[in-house]
Design a protein that fits this description.
heterodimer; A: 424 residues; alpha/beta; 10 helices; globular; B: 838 residues; alpha+beta; 6-stranded antiparallel beta sheet; 27 helices
């Protein structure tokens, strides 16, 4: 056997990787059957007690508590906020995780980074986002479809980190603009595009002919040709929501709903991971970061979420995609039951809720519980790595799988253990 | 700096620091810390304060600006206007005439957006949010008057800049004119923009002069040190330069050192680049920019024998020399500023200090030592900014790793959590160096270890240290250098053990320091290092040990002068040869021959800078600042100014994902740069970028907003001007090729492009149409303080929408012609040849 140094490094790294990873030998890891994930991001920190973990009614001033009444759901004994009335009957397709916990509550960016990467920055490498990890682990379904799409602003927390640009995302900031870089400039019609590509191919062929033996040049020319494949009319049609019935479009609701509809179309076309940002903070003047008077109109956000989420679940179900598509409602932290001096709420990372739906999970249950006011976890604390491990397992990814940053092995999650009760 | 005497031609300005609270306007008896002059009563910049080693320092918060001026004004009625963001008072003959209120620090993002600025009044520039006007009418008697302005700049919770501080005056109904000598600028939008641009340039030049004056002694001390090193080196004979066979090309000794291996392996050196190929490559390598048509013409007009050397001389003196190097060191040193409440392992913006260091051509050992000492201002871009690592529980471990990689080729990153399995480093090495930088023992954080899971497998890595264990300061690299002489350093450091690290690192006994630097610079120009990986010397051997030794000696003899080394390398035949392969087959020392440089593509910075240069367009980017109101402290909201080059871009920090925090133009530039390997977040050091060609690169350039703007024939486009020249179509095509591709078109290309344009060429000019240049201006009413409002959101979304339409097309060219010429430009910029360094 030829034991080169390179090979030694490889085997060493792999062995080291498994040693560094979750105690793979000790537990049997479930392997879910989902092949795509829609990650609904409630940036700002959605108040769990005003959404999926309702408590006694507070008064918006001195008396701590939920801001709304609660209603029953399809999960026996579980209640949610009254503004989630369309989703409540569908909660049997969901698992409400009420005991997510971490320690970063001061800063949005740091907490959002944790919720996307599952790690805190170390300064030795930049960790990839969960979307990039899924792209890396599962790959694209076809050459003509990207693995990872973001509807929201590009930022570090969504980046591929050490996995590199090929596991980055295509993004759009508004539905009407279409995917950045894929859509032609508004003044370039088909005729111009044809003219451009003809001229470009002249330039390209001249260059390659002048340098017939230069592999780097031939390679660069090939990449130039490939690029235009990704912007195929077939894929761009996915972004055209007019192809859906107006009834369906309307039932999804506003901009966030339309994004959810697009997410379904993207998943249908073969995209692995779609992050949909709910960043329409103008609805209530603060988005989910409901300090001060952001609280007053928070119900508008909840109603928007409700309409979109409920329609998405039903739409996926109708298209027979719900079992293979995991839908996640995620946020960077929750908010305390007490009100601030302006009638809103501060940040709380000790205990908050996130939701998992579909994806072939054993849904229709509540995981974990918090105390009377949702301030502390009473049972089943779930760390961010655990939550990520659950997403990965649902997608058939072993959370202990090793990725490589150079020769350094980095497991998919930082010792995350999946929520076993959600797997049969 | 020189004391300016009132001469009636300039306004004399004094700055005061540490003025007691409550007595901000009582500065008469105080001694100013700086005195300088301005052309008129408008103050948008203040001089940077420099330490004796030219490092930028913070002024006290707040500091006081006093401006005084004496002049006669004809008798009559005047209206005086004081415009300020914070507290200021304007005095006429010692009596308060006008005053503005102190600015309140902001605490939330819930404020309303102020009403739109009304640009309809032609007499005065609209008041910029959140400035205040204080206006008063007075009658003057025609005698000489004393005018004094005292203004409080910055303060607790505020950004330390004057904003748009000014005093102007007008006869009733007339235009406001800045107070100052006759002929001072008016307070109108056009004049103001010009005044600010001139002030910007003047202050930058003044800063340069002052920091060089301030640091003359330090410069001399470094020269003395280098003289000693030179003398010591001269005591030992240099390396014998090998002889090469007559057929082996040699421009200088580099080629002779390389020649042996070429001969031994019977490898034919790659052929010499053509003259224009060389010019494009060397321009990109030394300045980060493609050559301009004027430079190409001058180059071709120079005798063939000397034209390459002359071009190198010119390029080495270009101010862009610094721009191009900053980008490289930002990566290597993990410069990672955040413009919004930094908390993702962010540093401060030490880019500005890097830039001034390369502009001033500082010796490389001085740059390393000053970086390691980490002194100066954290927010104005001094090395202290390097010391920051927000939300990192072992900040000095991160710095130790960066310093060791950057200057010693010792990669310690694995030692963060355990003894390195593939390197001869123990975890203790990293943390004892970390303790030296911290200036005290450091405790191992619980996150910097590998948990042993009960029932799990025993880790294969050795975990020698326990969480919570205290590690004492100790130099870990005794095998590289045993002695440090801090006393021999030309500068002092305020943290003794940190200063000792600097002494060890740059010690002339430490051969590794010069070798690592030389290898990095070599790799920068040749695409591959003599040692690979260039940041991890325990894993690679030098492919040409004698060449490495020779270059190191030359480098030390030159006084660690990067420019001298660059000149040596680019003057070699080896550098001037055509590129060969991409280097993937030359990663082991044995296979590295340097038959030519390896193929490289333009870096992200070279690409965006060159596209702007060729199009003659400015970045037109928003300020890298999310708090234009200035009502937050600099540490929370850095103001990194308006970028003019790629390296000045920064992560846009919209982790909150809020539309009102978007900077659309900056985003369009960042979109291109990050697709081409630029890292918006530099959480860790990197010597080689992940910038392999990808289909997304093709797409973002072809369809993205920036690419669209670059080829758009607007009235501020240099291509538009070119197309309007009265030259034949053939000439336009040739000139365009020179501008974009740095070469004339081939016969084929010429006929393709000429036949595209010819049918529309004669009639291309639209008679009577005028040039309309509208600069994009970000609405600076939106600031952190009001970004949560619906209006702020709508303003930015509208800017985003407008931007997507691209720049306003010129009306001076017919649409048929314009679109075809734009398509021609598009094809050139998107051609594979454009991004490849020849």
């Amino acid at each position: 056997m030829n034991l080169t140094r390179r090979n030694l490094l490889k085997t060493g790294a792999a062995a080291l990787g498994s040693a560094l990873s979750a105690n793979a030998a000790a537990i049997h890891l479930p392997k879910g059957k989902a092949d795509a994930c829609i990650f609904l991001w409630l940036g700002g920190g959605a108040a769990h007690i005003d959404t999926f973990d309702p408590k006694r009614h507070g008064d918006g001033k001195l008396k701590a508590g939920s801001y709304y009444d609660s209603i029953g759901t399809a999960i026996h004994g579980a209640r949610v906020c009254e503004h989630l009335k369309h989703s409540a009957p569908l909660m049997d397709r969901c698992a409400i995780v009420r005991s997510v916990t971490h320690t970063i509550k001061g800063e949005h960016a740091a907490a959002a980074n944790l919720l996307h990467t599952g790690r805190t920055p170390s300064g030795t490498l930049q960790y990839p986002s969960i979307g990039s990890i899924v792209s890396h682990q599962l790959g694209s379904k076809s050459e003509e479809v990207p693995a990872y799409v973001v509807m929201g602003y590009p930022n570090i927390t969504r980046d591929p980190g050490f996995l590199g640009a090929k596991h980055g995302y295509i993004y759009l900031t508004q539905i009407e603009t279409g995917p950045n870089g894929l859509v032609r400039p508004p003044d370039v019609d088909n005729a111009r595009e044809d003219r451009r590509e003809t001229l470009l191919s002249k330039m390209r062929e001249g260059f390659t002919k002048r340098n017939p033996k230069d592999e780097a040049i031939q390679g660069q020319a090939e990449v130039s040709r490939q690029g235009f494949k990704l912007a195929s009319p077939k894929f761009l049609n996915v972004f055209d929501l007019q192809r859906e019935s107006s009834t369906l479009r309307e039932s999804y609701g506003g901009e966030f709903g339309q994004r959810c509809l697009l997410a379904r179309r993207l998943v249908q076309s073969g995209v692995r991971f779609v992050e949909v940002s709910f960043n329409l903070n103008f609805l209530n003047g603060s988005g989910w970061d409901t300090h001060n008077d952001g609280q007053v109109k928070q119900h508008l956000l909840i109603q928007d979420l409700d309409k979109a989420f409920a329609t998405l679940l039903q739409d996926l179900e109708k298209n027979k995609l719900l079992d293979t598509t995991l839908v996640v409602i995620a946020t960077e932290f929750g908010r305390p039951a007490e009100f601030d001096s302006g009638g809103g709420r501060g940040h709380q990372s000790e205990a908050f809720s996130m939701v998992l739906a579909g994806g072939g999970l054993q849904t229709g249950r509540v995981v974990g519980a918090t105390d009377d006011l949702g301030l502390a976890i009473l049972e089943r604390p779930v760390s961010v790595p655990d939550f990520h491990a659950t997403i990965h397992c649902a997608l058939g990814i072993d959370p202990g799988n090793v990725m490589h940053a150079g020769d350094r092995p980095v497991p998919v999650t930082d010792h995350g253990k999946p929520l076993m009760e959600l797997f049969s | 700096m020189a004391q300016d005497k009132p001469d009636g031609k300039t306004v004399v300005v004094d700055l005061f620091e540490d003025v007691p609270a409550g007595a901000e306007f009582q500065v008469q008896a105080l001694k100013p810390v700086a005195t300088y002059s301005e052309p008129a009563f408008a103050f948008v910049h203040t001089p940077t304060k420099f330490a004796p080693n030219a490092i930028p320092l913070d002024r006290s918060a707040p500091f006081i600006l006093r401006a005084g001026y004496k002049r006669k004004l004809p008798a009559g009625e005047y209206q005086f206007r004081l415009r300020a963001r914070g507290a200021a008072v304007f005095q006429l003959d010692g009596k308060d005439l006008l005053n503005t209120k102190a600015q309140k620090p902001n605490t939330t993002g819930d404020d309303p957006v102020p009403p739109p600025v009304d640009h309809s009044d032609p007499l005065v520039r609209p008041l910029q949010y959140p400035h205040q006007d204080s206006v008063m009418k007075v009658k003057l008697d025609g005698t000489e008057h004393n005018f004094t302005l005292i203004a409080v700049i910055g303060g607790k919770g505020l950004y330390p800049s004057p904003g748009e501080l000014s005093v102007s005056f007008a006869h009733p109904g007339e235009v406001d004119r800045l107070l100052g000598p006759d002929g001072s600028a008016t307070l109108t939008d056009t004049d103001w923009d010009k005044y600010v641009a001139a002030s910007d340039q003047r202050h930058r030049q003044d800063d340069l002069v002052r920091r060089r004056q301030a640091s003359a002694e330090v410069v001399a001390a470094w020269e003395a040190r280098h003289e000693k090193i030179r003398a010591a080196l001269k005591m030992s004979p240099g390396l014998a330069v090998p002889n090469v066979q007559p057929g082996t090309p040699a421009y200088n000794d580099i080629d002779r050192f390389l020649g042996q291996k070429l001969e031994k392996t019977q490898t034919a050196p790659s052929p010499l680049t053509a003259d224009l190929e060389f010019l494009r490559r060397v321009s990109l390598d030394l300045t980060g920019l493609i050559p301009t048509p004027a430079e190409i013409t001058a180059y071709l007009a120079t005798p063939a024998k000397t034209r390459r050397a002359k071009a190198v001389d010119r390029l080495l003196e270009s101010p862009s020399w610094a721009d191009h190097w900053v980008a490289y060191w930002q990566d290597v040193l993990a410069e990672n500023p955040g413009i919004l409440k930094p908390d993702l392992n962010n540093t401060g913006p030490f880019r500005w200090w890097l830039h001034q260091s390369f502009t001033d051509q500082l010796p490389f050992d001085r740059i390393a030592a000053e970086l390691i000492d980490m002194e100066g201002s954290q927010t104005l871009g001094a090395p202290a900014a390097f010391s920051q690592a927000t939300l990192n529980d072992a900040p000095y471990a991160a710095k130790a790793d960066i310093i060791a990689q950057a200057f010693l080729g010792q990669k310690l990153q694995c030692a963060r959590c355990h003894d390195a399995p593939f390197h001869p480093f123990k975890q203790k090495d990293l943390f004892s160096l970390s303790a030296m930088l911290a200036g005290k023992p450091v405790k191992l954080p619980s996150t910097s270890t590998v948990p042993v899971v009960e029932g799990g497998r025993r880790p294969m890595v050795t975990i020698a240290l326990k969480a919570g264990e205290s590690i004492a300061p100790e130099w870990p690299f005794k095998t590289l250098v045993e002695h440090s002489e801090t006393a021999a350093l030309p500068e002092k450091g305020s943290v003794p053990s940190r200063h000792e690290v600097a002494a060890y690192v740059i010690s002339p006994e430490n051969e590794r320091f010069a070798q690592v630097a030389v290898n990095r610079i070599w790799k920068h120009y040749m695409g591959l290092g003599i040692v690979e990986p260039a940041d991890d010397w325990t894993r690679g051997k030098p492919s040409h040990p004698e060449l490495l030794a020779y270059l190191s000696r030359e480098f030390m003899m030159s006084g660690y002068d990067i420019k001298a080394l660059a000149r040596l390398i680019v003057s070699s035949h080896a550098y001037q040869r055509k590129p060969v392969g991409n280097g993937s087959d030359q990663m082991s020392a044995e296979t590295r021959i340097f038959a030519g440089p390896v193929h490289r593509n333009m870096t992200a910075e070279q690409l965006v800078d060159s596209m702007h240069l060729a199009a003659g367009k400015e970045f037109e980017c928003e300020d890298m600042n999310l708090n234009p109101a200035g009502d937050r402290p600099a540490k929370q909201f850095l103001n990194m100014g308006k970028p003019t080059r790629g390296w000045q871009m920064t992560a846009l920090s919209n982790e909150r994902d809020r539309p009102a925090l978007a900077l659309p133009i900056a985003q369009s530039i960042v979109d291109v740069m990050s697709t081409f390997g630029w890292r918006q977040s530099r959480q860790n050091p990197a010597t080689t970028r992940d910038d392999a060609p990808s289909p997304m690169q093709t797409l973002i350039l072809a369809n993205g907003v920036l690419g669209t703007r670059m080829v758009r024939l607007s009235d501020d486009s240099a291509y538009t001007e070119l197309a309007l020249r009265s030259i034949p179509a053939e000439e336009l095509v040739k000139e365009t090729f020179l501008k974009v591709m740095s070469r004339p078109p081939s016969t084929d290309e010429s006929s393709t492009f000429v036949s595209l344009l010819k049918p529309y060429y004669q009639s291309r000019k639209v008679k009577g149409a005028e040039s309309v240049i509208t600069k994009r201006q970000s609405d600076n009413r939106v600031s952190w303080s009001n970004h949560l409002s619906a209006e702020a959101t709508l303003i930015r979304m509208e800017e985003e929408r407008k931007l997507r339409m691209g720049d306003q097309p010129t009306k001076r060219l017919t649409t048929e012609f314009r679109e075809r010429y734009e398509d021609a430009l598009w094809a050139m910029i998107n051609s594979p040849e454009f991004v490849m360094v020849p």
